[in-house]
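Review this fold:
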Amino acid sequence: MWRQHRYKIALTLLLLQAALVLAFQLGEVKPWASIDWLDILGEGIVLLVALCWLTLIVTSRPAGHITEWLYYGSLLLVCSFTLDLLDEFLRYPAHLRTMSWLESLPAPLGMLALTYGLVGWHREQRIINRQLQGRELFLRDHRLLDPLTQLYGLDYLYAVLKREIELHREQQQPLSLLMLGIDQFSAFNRQHGMAAGDQYLVQLAELLSSQLRSSDVLCRYAGDRFVVLLVNTRQREADIMAQHLQQQLTLLDSSEQQLSLSITSQQVNHAEAATVLARAEQQLLAVKRKSQAYQLQPD
């Protein structure tokens, strides 16, 4: 992890070296008898703690916006505490206020930057914990898997959709949803048997899984319907994905007849999971009715 922050480590060493050089150039060493060792102990411990903070940040945090605030806030504190400790060994001319300013100003600025970074870290950790807890719960509960297609089912879909809507609201990232339905699937089952229908569903699930991104969530919504949750995806990108899946469906030929697939897409806004899925069902039903009406038109 620290390799991502090599420039930060170099900057830290450079600033500490510059502080030492400047302090010894402008000040003179105090007489041994005038040194207050109790103050040195207290200020040395404070500096050591700040250095530990800085070390933890560069060794455990990935590069990013929040890490920058945490690092620079801690660095300002380290510089201020270093000059504060050196002040116990060095005496500066009374008319020279430079070292006093350099010793006093970085500390409050560093505290503000560090506090802002800690607030962001807390918010980030809450989101990560929520994701990990939900993911672990779902992975351990095999009852949420559809026994036929081995995809997650409706209960899992509701839980994930609810979670992603909350994250979408907090992070303002786009979220889209596809609903897919097999046209005339009941007629296909009556004509060719349930076994042929089950085989087609398994093949369709495998095909869809192979065409989706690792971040997408594919679930079996009902008997002949599937839902794809597209994280960080806008409406236009969802439409492109829907067209791509329609094209890939030609690779999935049943031995008896070619089935068609209706797909709808929508961008999910601030709404309840049930409302989002109900709207998707209505859109899919409208698409299927339009497709059937078109097929019944005389040539």
